[in-house]
Amino acid sequence: MADQAYHAMLHQKRLQNIVISGESGSGKTESAKLLLQQLVYLGRAPNRNLEAKILQVNPIMEAFGNAETGMNENSSRFGKYLDVTFTRAGKVTGAKIDVYLLEESRVHHQARGERNFHIFYYLLDGSANTDLQKELNLNKHGYNYLRGALTDNADLKAVHKEMFQAVKNGFCLLGFRLEEINAIYRILSAILHLGEIEFDEVKDEDSCHVHDPESLEMVADLLGITAGDLGLALTTRSVVASGESFVRRHTAEEAYTTRDSLARGLYNRLFRWVVNQVNALLGVSRQAYGDPLSIGLLDIFGFETYKTNSLEQLRINITNEQLQFFFNQHVFTWEQQEYMAEGIEIDIIRFSDNRPILELCLGKPLGILSLLDEESRFPRATDWTFLEKLNSNFANNKLYVRSRSSADTTFSVRHYAGRVQYDVKGFLDKNRSYFSPDLVEILRGSSIDTIRYLYRCMVTKTGHLHVPSLVDGNKKARQI
Ligand SMILES: Nc1ncnc2c1ncn2[C@@H]1O[C@H](COP(=O)(O)OP(=O)(O)OP(=O)(O)O)[C@@H](O)[C@H]1O
């Protein structure tokens, strides 16, 4: 496939794309790696260093974006589009990566038998018995965000150690600065310690306080902020009403939600920042060649249906509906139109058109995702009110199936690949990706450059992050 795409690109002087799709564990990521190796081999650049740099992208992305699931020990928990660019003569000039739908909730919650993102285990075993371990205070035998105790399996620990070294080498080869690499470790470690912070409910007061100041101090120290500020931002929030600002206390439950959304937000921003850095560092020679040719590799989750399906599965399945629609257009609609335009007689092939499902999910203003966005804007809305809205809006839509039991929190969609039942519990929280403005303010004042920088990025109305690049000469924010 790589040879075919490469030669088509050279002969037709047109951009090419390879879409790799399939269910979890079917071999998409491994295929993407083989394709990339072959493309880099075919377009061997005079600058061999560039080749080596491009091949570093996968180990880094896998460490931060992959995790063990019930289906696959190395499952990609994000979608990626890698664009390899070439000169008109077919020499590789660089690469650029775009990422989609990172499963950020994995940072604080993993299903039974599943694990967090690989990088946490690599860091723990890779830093064991070193100064880094002391600096990051990573000497516990288990962490809440890793579902408790760590492995004692020596072979697995050795693999983690090796992978940690590989990621570190990858960062160095790509040109990450030492202080940037250290900031990455600090953020990862801060996330692990964050999960250790517990809150005690204050009786009859609807408020709480931090149970364990030690973990709070460690997180604050790692993030370059003060423990007092962090504790306050986790247990209270500033509210403005009628032009006046006052402080509202959190219940323990609210404090836990704030803690987890901080962990999620930190990881999400870190992940996107790493991607931005990789792009900036790999794009330097590409910019020199002007309008280059390129081959894109899309490695995206296949259709998912589990016992319990949440917002992540809905988004993944909608993406697959879009891919299916694109496939139908290409293989049937446009091809048949071309035959007809040329007056060639053909038997019209009937295919199942999934446009109505796309309309149900993505229609504006009345698709499932639009209604979710609308509901997320109401402070008093709950997962229940969202479900009621779906049930009333799609009462006559045959592709939408409401639950028979009124006590049930589920609905189903008849996708092109089959019927999937979704549980709305947690939909609103996940869609809001609430991030306390008080915490943003504190992190913007961090004494650590990279952390301050990460929190200068803006979250747009559509949920996009504008992440500023740290690389000299390219300080313009790039929209992801
Ligand atoms: N070409 C291959 N050669 C050898 N083993 C392979 C190959 N492709 C896949 N495998 C095996 O299958 C496993 C799953 O493959 P891979 O991680 O590529 O799946 P995936 O489709 O990307 O899954 P996910 O959607 O969960 O990320 C690999 O870890 C490997 O053990």
From TrEMBL:
Family: Belongs to the TRAFAC class myosin-kinesin ATPase superfamily. Myosin family.
Organism: Allacma fusca
Subcellular location field: Cell projection; Cytoplasm, Cytoskeleton
GO BP annotation list: regulation of actin filament length
One GO molecular-function entry: protein serine/threonine kinase activity
Protein name from the UniProt record: Myosin motor domain-containing protein
UniProt binding sites for ATP: 22-29
InterPro entries: Myosin-III_kinase_activity, Myosin_head_motor_dom-like
Major localization class: other
Limits of the Myosin motor domain: 1-480
